[in-house]
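Suppose a colleague, Dr. K., hands you the sequence of a protein chain of 224 amino acids and asks what its three-dimensional shape might be. Before reaching for any lab equipment, you can write down a predicted structure in token form. Begin with the sequence itself:
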Amino acid sequence: MKSLLSIGVGAGKSNAGKTTFIEKLIKHIKQTRSSLVIAVKYSKSSLYSSIITEDALLEKEGKDTARMKKAGADYVFWVKANEDDFPEICYQLYEQINSILPKDMQTVLIIEGNSLVREMKTDVIIFLKGNLKEHMKPSGQAIFERADLIIGENYSMEEVMAEIEKIEQKKIIEKLLKERSNDGKITCAEARKIAEELNVAYIEVGRVANELKIKIRKCELGCF
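The predicted structure, expressed as tokens, is then:
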């Protein structure tokens, strides 16, 4: 079974430190998890569109893609797209990523670039806030409003990863509750089964069910 965690990294303006953050994130993941890491850099283009995978271009000195590769990313994609081609390029990127996902190993996909993060609907969205009083470009504002995690200058990567794992866990619970509920209701036995499958406390499943307004029926043990 393919297992993919996608993380989007955006900001309100250019030169906000996105690539530096991603370098640290990649290094931390490679040091603490047995995961394949795919990194994607998005650049808006006014001319042609392409998905660049050639090492000679990706590893050119000074490129953000070279920094991602050096940090330990197993695969790096550089996406360049104009407005007209953007939807098709996103579809092509999805197809290329899906073709390289290992079946029995977790993969972490890290995407840099506000528009691509939004279009690819990543599991977790991280926003580097910088100075929020400064003018924020529209694409940055859109990501800020949808961000799961807003990070300032002083952060611990251990704490960031812990928050990512909490967000990931909650979204998995949400997905399973929606799939297994019927007409906004789910049995106590099925809710307990979700908790046991994910090795989380019953109360965590109950909390997410409340947020989704899914009622747990036939509660036998007072777990929820």
